[in-house]
Write a sequence for this structure.
């Protein structure tokens, strides 16, 4: 039988369509499954209560606090570095071998698996610099992980600021830094925040790099030298050591909601920026 | 004086601009300095190609982990690459743009699901299914491949869509105007034009699969042996590091860092190839 | 009276391509110099050379000299930032910065005021008045400048430049996108401004040069063909190419 192009087309649409459907089903199933099992566990006392008996009972408040503290620290460390790098690459230098190398370095850093970050953070921050398993060691490690994301999104956002704004600013006697500070950064802010939010999302969900650098203490941290347990680590330990499936689902649901809403916020800001530009 | 502060800012930013690059180099230096001496001392061949992993007895052969990582990754690619590329083609060529504009970000959003959650789903849903219907313990090479295959879908779809969209509209219109069907146009014009971007997406996804840790630990069962079938439990390089790092000391710890060196080298090769493939595309334009 | 600006064998290249070739020109203060010529003749490059805006884009190189009050602005130790405060510029397209009218005006003065935040608030009113915009915006200084009409935006850009209290004002086809009423307002403002400033007006509209300029320079293919009083240029040009352009044979 000779294949008629129209029939081939129909077959192709059917195959591609079902592949797409399968993909979407798999991804949506994961979210729905976790939420369905986890949402019933989620309530106010679960979110604000202290865990009891290694997390078998009680709530997850210290883990939430740990996630927030670690993420905030990582962002505070990474954002100035990432934004500074992007500003340098776009405003202070021309395309050259140097910028290509810096960009390539950022891309490679983005591709490094989290377990390698974990190993690195463990040997440098925890062991050699004697920080121990701590917020600080975890925050430094995570900061390096999210740095490439912040650099890339900030660069895109800065490039989207019209050239004419720069010309006007320079023509009014502004220096380079004044132009960056007063015109470019304020106009690139939504894009920068998008990068930061994506970094927040990644920090919240990270486990491998965190468990070896921030540890897994269930106590509330009092300083940046205390060990913390994040939601992701708590969830992993509950699930892996079979401590409590019920509380694991609850933690997973809280984690997924947090990560997805942060990412959603990032996309929303990005879309607003794109809409404003066109 | 604005002129001096301007100079200070410039120097400061130049220093900051090296942060990512220095982080990369620092990571490379530390991992390699901790792991490479061990590889030399223990013997390169003995380390990479011996199947004996018994830290208590001072045996550190990672061959089973290398093979397992290879199989799990290939399995993940066999599942993720066709599905992902098919999804990208379908969403760009056969679905109205408005629908694509909703589905693509949703899929990218799903890339943010933490890997531990994927692992958990693998344990709770996938492993029992495999155990009951195909046999074996459930936690297996197959389970790892399926979970990783799903995890890399967003990466492949998102980058593939971008590179398919970057194919000039005129190519497509030219083909359609000659009487080709949409599918013929896709197969003969669009896909060849977008192939380097798609290849890059697959390489990057492969890097993600090789480097994934938590999900893999949870679903692959972690026994140190060369798998005889897809239903047997395996341990990957990443799992090997993560499982034993917590308590390893001395030679054992160095062996784990040496495992890290192997992983690092593999990842850097994949990064280099992805960026090479991407550059090829830019050069052609 | 000494020349305000003097160009001496001044050339600009973009990569290997010459954009301006060996320009010699003296410009007096308190006058409007009209610069005319077809597009691509180097008018804008000439204008942007006077406040060193060309160098912001990679690939431009300049040679020769431009003296401002007897100092070479391309000299090694001449600071481009302070030059741009003395030589203000209005662009072809009105580009209000995305902030309020008030913030647009004080953008320049605040930059030089430095950390003390001290600048004269009265500059807002005086510069808006000088640009014939005050009456239209006096009640909404804090609203976004992006909400103004095109003609108002361009007058805002003029006012913003005036707020710097420059010595020279460069205008790059400031009326190219404007309606006749806004154009008339800007032209009126310019004729008053020349009492205090040196004005250089690049225009695609030869009639505009005839209306407002005291002297006119004609550029063609990166060269200055002829310069003289506007009356002489429009009634008895020395070069045939000038008369051909002015009478509309090309361009």
């Amino acid at each position: 039988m000779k294949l008629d192009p129209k029939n081939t087309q129909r077959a192709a649409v059917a195959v591609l369509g079902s592949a797409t459907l399968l993909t979407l089903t798999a991804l949506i199933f994961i979210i729905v499954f976790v939420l369905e099992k986890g949402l019933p566990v989620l309530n106010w006392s679960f979110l604000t209560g202290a865990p009891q008996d290694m997390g078998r009972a009680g709530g997850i408040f210290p883990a939430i606090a740990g996630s927030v503290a670690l993420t905030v620290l990582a962002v505070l460390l990474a954002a100035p570095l990432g934004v500074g790098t992007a500003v340098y690459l776009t405003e202070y230098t021309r395309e050259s071998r140097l910028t290509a190398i810096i960009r390539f370095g950022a891309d490679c850093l983005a591709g490094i698996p989290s377990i390698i970050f974990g190993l690195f953070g463990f040997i440098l921050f925890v062991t050699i610099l004697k920080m121990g398993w701590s917020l600080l060691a975890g925050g430094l490690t995570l900061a390096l992980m999210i740095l490439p994301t912040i650099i890339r999104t900030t660069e895109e956002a800065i490039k989207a600021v019209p050239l004419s704004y720069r010309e006007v600013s320079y023509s009014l006697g502004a220096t380079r830094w004044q132009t960056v500070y007063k015109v470019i950064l304020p106009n690139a802010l939504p894009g920068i925040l998008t990068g930061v939010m994506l970094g927040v999302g990644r920090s919240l969900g990270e486990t491998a790099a965190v468990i070896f650098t921030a540890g897994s203490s269930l106590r509330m941290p009092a300083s940046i030298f205390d060990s913390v347990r994040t939601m992701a680590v708590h969830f992993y330990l509950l699930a892996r050591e079979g401590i409590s499936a019920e509380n694991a689902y609850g933690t997973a649901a809280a984690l997924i909601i947090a990560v997805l809403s942060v990412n959603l916020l990032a996309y929303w800001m990005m879309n607003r920026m794109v809409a404003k530009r066109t | 004086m604005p002129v001096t502060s301007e100079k200070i800012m410039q120097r400061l930013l130049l220093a900051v601009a090296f942060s990512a690059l220095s982080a990369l180099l620092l990571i490379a230096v530390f991992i390699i300095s901790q792991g490479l001496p061990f590889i030399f001392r223990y013997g390169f061949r003995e380390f990479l190609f011996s199947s004996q992993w018994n830290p208590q007895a001072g045996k550190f052969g990672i061959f089973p982990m290398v093979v397992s990582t290879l199989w799990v990754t290939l399995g993940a690619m066999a599942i993720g690459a066709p599905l992902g590329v098919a999804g990208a083609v379908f969403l760009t060529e056969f679905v109205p743009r408005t629908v694509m504009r909703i589905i693509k970000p949703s899929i990218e959003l799903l890339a943010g699901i933490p890997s531990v959650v994927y692992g958990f789903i693998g344990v709770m849903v996938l492993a029992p299914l495999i155990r009951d219907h195909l046999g074996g313990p459930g936690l297996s090479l197959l389970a790892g491949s399926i979970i990783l295959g799903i995890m890399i879908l967003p990466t492949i779809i998102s980058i593939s869509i971008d590179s398919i969209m970057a194919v000039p509209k005129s190519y497509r219109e030219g083909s359609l105007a000659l009487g080709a069907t949409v599918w013929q146009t896709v197969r003969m014009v669009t896909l060849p034009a977008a192939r380097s971007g798609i290849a890059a997406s697959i390489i990057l996804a492969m890097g993600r699969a090789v480097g994934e840790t938590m999900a893999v630990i949870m679903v692959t069962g972690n026994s140190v042996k060369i798998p005889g079938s897809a239903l047997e439990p395996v341990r990957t390089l990443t799992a090997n590091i993560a499982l034993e790092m917590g308590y390893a000391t001395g030679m054992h710890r160095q062996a784990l860092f040496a495992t890290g060196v192997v992983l690092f080298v593999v990842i850097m090769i994949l990064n280099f190839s992805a960026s090479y493939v991407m550059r090829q595309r830019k050069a052609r334009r | 009276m000494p020349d305000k600006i003097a160009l001496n064998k001044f050339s600009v290249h973009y990569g290997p391509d010459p954009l301006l070739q060996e320009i010699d020109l003296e410009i007096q203060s308190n006058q409007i110099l009209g610069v005319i010529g077809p597009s691509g003749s180097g008018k804008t490059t000439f204008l942007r050379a006077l406040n060193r805006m060309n160098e912001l884009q990679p690939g431009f190189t300049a040679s020769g000299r431009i003296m401002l009050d007897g100092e070479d602005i391309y000299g090694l130790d001449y600071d481009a930032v302070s030059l741009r405060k003395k030589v203000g510029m209005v662009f072809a397209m009105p580009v209000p910065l995305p902030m309020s009218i008030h913030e647009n005006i004080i953008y320049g003065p605040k930059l030089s005021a430095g950390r003390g935040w001290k600048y004269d608030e009265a500059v807002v009113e005086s510069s808006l008045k000088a640009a014939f915009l005050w009456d239209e915006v006096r009640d909404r200084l804090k609203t976004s400048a992006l909400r103004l009409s095109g003609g108002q935006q361009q007058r805002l850009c003029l006012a913003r430049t005036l707020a710097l209290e420059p010595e020279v004002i460069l205008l790059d086809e400031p009326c190219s996108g404007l309606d006749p009423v806004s154009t008339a307002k800007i032209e009126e403002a310019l004729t008053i401004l020349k009492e205090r400033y040196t004005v250089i007006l690049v225009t695609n509209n030869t009639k505009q040069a005839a209306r407002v300029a005291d002297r006119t320079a004609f550029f063609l293919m990166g060269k200055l063909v002829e310069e003289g009083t506007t009356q002489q240029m429009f009634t008895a040009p020395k070069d045939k190419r000038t008369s051909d352009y002015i009478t509309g044979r090309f361009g």
